[in-house]
Hints:
By secondary structure, the chain is α+β, with helices and mostly antiparallel strands. 51% of the residues lie in helices and 8% in strands. The protein has a 4-stranded antiparallel β-sheet.
Amino acid sequence: xxxxxxxxxxxxxxxxxxxxxxxxxxxxxxxxxxxxxxxxxxxxxxxxxxxxxxxxxxxxxxxxxxxxxxxxxxxxxxxxxxxxxxxxxxxxxxxxxxxxxxxxxxxxxxxxxxxxxxxxxxxxxxxxxxxxxxxxxxxxxxxxxxxxxxxxxxxxxxxxxxxxxxxxxxxxxxxxxxxxxxxxxxxxxxxxxxxxxxxxxxxxxxxxxxxxxxxxxxxxxxxxxxxxxxxxxxxxxxxxxxxxxxxxxxxxxxxxxxxxxxxxxxxxxxxxxxxxxxxxxxxxxxxxxxxxxxxxxxxxxxxxxxxxxxxxxxxxxxxxxxxxxxxxxxxxxxxxxxxxxxxxx
Length: 345
């Protein structure tokens, strides 16, 4: 029997598995959705630059213990429909089976490990995304947080020694905020005032989590008191996992009145769900298009290309761009983009 999809290989090796997107926010892709993606019945939901970047987390059936699971960080090209390119997946599977057989959870020799790492379809995620993944898995499997957890809590409350905070500690705190009401209060009161490196690192940790409503509402309210700048952009980024909140939608509407380039990028790359009318009808997609249309044409081209690749947004964007009453800045920016794309062919 030939093996043509990743989940089939894992089932044949008697492994259980989970899938997490690593391209934008670190978030689980449920098994039903991933099976549809593998079988080209659904586009990859969170593409980045024409690729699907995700983690396969797997372990031998009936034997998950305190040992670390196996992790494959995978990056596959997508076709023009947003579907996984089957030839690339098949090439990876063939190389794995040739190297390891179908028992992918057996211990690898040093030579096998080196050969596997040479695959063009494996990649190394940023440290922050690896930390977010480990924090989410630790919480899911009810494991103790890392040794950096308690110091991170202390440093967030009293940031005098913030330079020594570990990235994993911040992500462990972010993943466990539901059980940390005092830390929620600390973040609500102090996040905007942290030294820039700590504020940015904390915002990155928060963006991968669905925040407690009280915290997300408090951070969103602070955005309404700020002009464009690094602090407002970081607060906006921290809310990426809380987009269904009316308070967050209000904050996004406020930011889009006079957004910076960084805020436009954050909205497109992290808060895309805010603009999906099927998810949150509070913010109109036209507001985002107008905001990015008023940026430099190169910025518009990069951002419109990015959001058009998002399967949940693409049909709504195309409908909006065909409207007769489309605001002139959007119409002009789109025509310039289309003209440039035609000349590039």
